[in-house]
Amino acid sequence: MLIDAFDRKIDYIRLSVTDRCDFRCVYCMSEDMTFMPRAQVLTLEELTEIGTAFVELGVSKIRVTGGEPLVRKGVTQVFKQLGKLPLKELTLTTNGSQLPKYAAELKAAGVKRINISLDTLNPAKFRELTRTGELQQVLDGIKAAQDVGFERIKLNAVILKNRNAVEVPELVQFVLDNHLDISFIEEMPLGSIVEHSRALEFCSSADLRDIIGPKFKLEPLQAQTAGPSRYWQVPGYHSRIGFISPHSENFCASCNRVRVSAEGKLLLCLGNEHAADLKAILRAHPGDRERLKATIVQAITIKPERHHFDLNSEPQIVRFMSSTGG
Length: 326
Prior knowledge:
Layout: E1 3-5, E2 8-10, E3 12-16, H1 44-56, E4 61-65, H2 76-82, E5 89-94, H3 99-109, E6 113-117, H4 123-130, H5 135-148, E7 152-159, H6 168-178, E8 181-186, H7 198-201, H8 205-212, E9 219-220, E10 230-233, E11 240-244, E12 257-260, E13 265-267, E14 275-277, H9 278-284, H10 289-300, H11 321-324
Parallel strand pairs: 3-4, 3-12, 4-5, 5-6, 6-7, 7-8, 8-11
Antiparallel strand pairs: 1-2, 9-10, 10-11, 12-13, 13-14
Helix pairs in contact: 1-2, 1-10, 2-3, 3-5
């Protein structure tokens, strides 16, 4: 029996294994980022226990995220344990830097798909956006994932009007040439930043399709996934070109997912603060999975119907994506 939230079913969780990264992304551009003490972060065993509880409640898809999940020491044990569960899909969101080291082990553990964050193909701009990242590391990671044969590899690109919007056609050409998918994501107001004005930098999914249109003919796909991306295709190619539109094309009505942060907060909506503390239950009642499942079921009853983002006001959500889980 799947967990009920209004008239929808929760079938997908994003499980964040760490709030730490080896380099930053568009969502974490503030100089004021701080990371949680280790004691506040879920242990590998607690992460596996939460995943197991959700699967016993009927969830069939788990995505492991961060921060950058592959910088967590011993994290492959989480994948190996989750891979033993009766899941339809075990996936990973990563910046790609560690994939040359871990791709084969992840594939063997049961990971089916990989999402790789990549906002630019310009090495200098990549270094500027990430502070310390090297584009070639990510490109090597993509190649490593292709070499071991994951079912699908998708890039995620957050697009800002005056930062990287001009590169969108190049990103499309890259995924077509390399048999990848891509999702272009409207920036969400998570955390306080000083590097740019979100209102001035906002680039809608419709704007992006207008940028792509002169070079590539886009045709909407009739069959869509259960996720927030709405997919299009370029005739003659198998690559899917997706658009995630939390501002301009709100997708809350079809939301079938929740997140668990690295500190064990069950986050019921990316754009709201509604949450339940699963870590507190795990540590106060170790081994009591039924109590944990009851807490999850009760929390789902307060899942908000939708979020309300305002680009012209202070951010409603003060946590960064590194602590939320991508």
